[in-house]
């Protein structure tokens, strides 16, 4: 949720600089205020709570690993559901609070909190269950699942279960006043710039017009090309949603998720509306595994919803100018998402949209690049 | 202005990790939007413009070093004022914009832009003038003056001049509604916390009350102990202001500025008012040097001012609860500021205030620690 992605995280050989990674990413998770925000997300809490307590068969007498335990909540529930032993790994000093929370709830004989990164920590044994709340905006922002994969490959027994077991990414076309708002903000910034150019020339004798193009590019990127967080209303979805990625948490590799590519179609379902951009969200499922399924399958979805919004919201990719479409218009969409070179926890997204109107008219391809910061 | 101070910048031997320093500090300066904010500060621009063009004796035919050139403005003015050669050093990719700005203003034969840190860069010669806009909030936040000292010790001729030549830090007692606002915010956060504790116990069976103390400390630090940016109105100053530090830019060492300590008194000048905290600001002067003085001494002040506010504002250190004082009440104040261990660009401030009321009553010492983040 909190990483701002300013510094270059990776070196030329690809290795991640841990100090920079901490400065950019991990640090916000060390704040109780941030943990509380996530603990107050009822949809998130209910899903994990139910996935554990309605599937005690997976926990009773078992060993569990909680990857990125934060305050320790999932580890504590796992212990309360009957686990024999729980290893709760946390990279930040939040681990100290997790440790005192475990003790205050009398679970110190079951839950062992370990401070360190999942890549470095050493457990005394392999585990029956790996549980983790690793999902970032649009699922993969923060690239925390890499750490879950690492944990799985090192510490999950061959018969072990992943919580959640599956994840999916969704994309749908939307309408939104944000596209006008951001365009106005951009225009305002450029008007202001031209006034600034005049002032600087007249008052200070320096011609800064050469910087207009890079300034406009910087503002364009900031206002128009950076994905936005929003909790959309379902009536903002104007066409069919499509799955752009499916992940089996038991078998996925880092390579499987490094690049997400998909081509899909979406039919506009709303009469006479404006196609203002695309929304991305995710869902995860707790199904256990084929050989050892969950007694009660649980789903956690972050799709637009009137009452059950989550702290993840959806990621909004605005397309300006919006295009007037009608019920039955067809969108052929190519979607591609890769990690930013400067910071593997942030993403670059490319959309290519071909609109076929109900009249038969086919509009030229709209291609746009976005940044998930 | 922009550094957020999240990651640990220094290692155990004191060396600064450059990647972390970039992620925490330098990165915001690479944005044109941020440069423009500073270029739009008329008070700042006028002071530097006047200091150069009203003191052409220091620039005509001379060599100049601009430390942290940003967009290149000071380097450009120095060249326009007649400098023979200007070296403009900039640590971020903003140097590329500075280079194109120099060229667009036909000064490429005079101004050479060098990308790199002042600590690493190598100049072909020593210089007559070092000019730099290095001041952070309350003067020393960002600790950029360290780089100016480094530049001076390596590259300034024995007869050379510093622009600015002198700097001072000021503190005064203030009144401000912010103290009530922040206290309300803190109380709101704690009320919310207690509701959260109940919900978590009732809905999810986990007792998080053990975290109340660390959560309260975290909120207290955030709302009540972190200095605020504000552009105060002069009528918010309720007593005499005092100089807590004076710096001669020609001779100051890093050790001189690592710790700022001062004891001073302030007499309340306003009738029946509330002492709500202290404000800190700075001024700098362009006086040249004794052997080679400025023809026109220029001052740049960030003191509270109705019309001439700057982007630096003042730093506000709130004291809750506020104390009722009257005209003639006396404050004996001990002030101490040191660098944060985790990040040398951020500060820790300690205040010790003894109030003597006009009635003769002397209140117990008010001691408080603050963080300049």
Please sum up the structure shown.
The structure is a homodimer of 373-residue chains. Chain A has 373 residues and is α/β, with parallel strands linked by helices.
Structure overview:
The structure is a homodimer of 373-residue chains. Chain A is an alpha/beta fold. In chain A, 27% of the residues lie in helices and 33% in strands. Chain A has helices spanning 18-24, 32-39, 42-53, 73-80, 94-104, 145-155, 178-204, 212-224, 254-258, and strands spanning 63-67, 85-90, 111-115, 127-131, 156-163, 166-174, 228-230, 242-248, 259-267, 273-289, 292-301, 314-325, 330-339, 347-356, 366-372. In chain A, strands 6, 7, 8, 10, 11 and 12 form a 6-stranded antiparallel sheet that branches. In chain A, strands 3-2-1-4-5 form a 5-stranded parallel sheet, with helices on both faces. The N and C termini of chain A lie close together (10 Å). Residues 1-7 of chain A have low confidence and may be disordered. Chains A and B meet through helix 1, helix 2, helix 4, helix 5 and helix 7 of A and helix 1, helix 2, helix 4, helix 5 and helix 7 of B. Chains A, B: Ring-like homodimer. Chains A, B: InterPro entries: Arg_MeTrfase (IPR025799), PRMT_dom (IPR055135), SAM-dependent_MTases_sf (IPR029063).
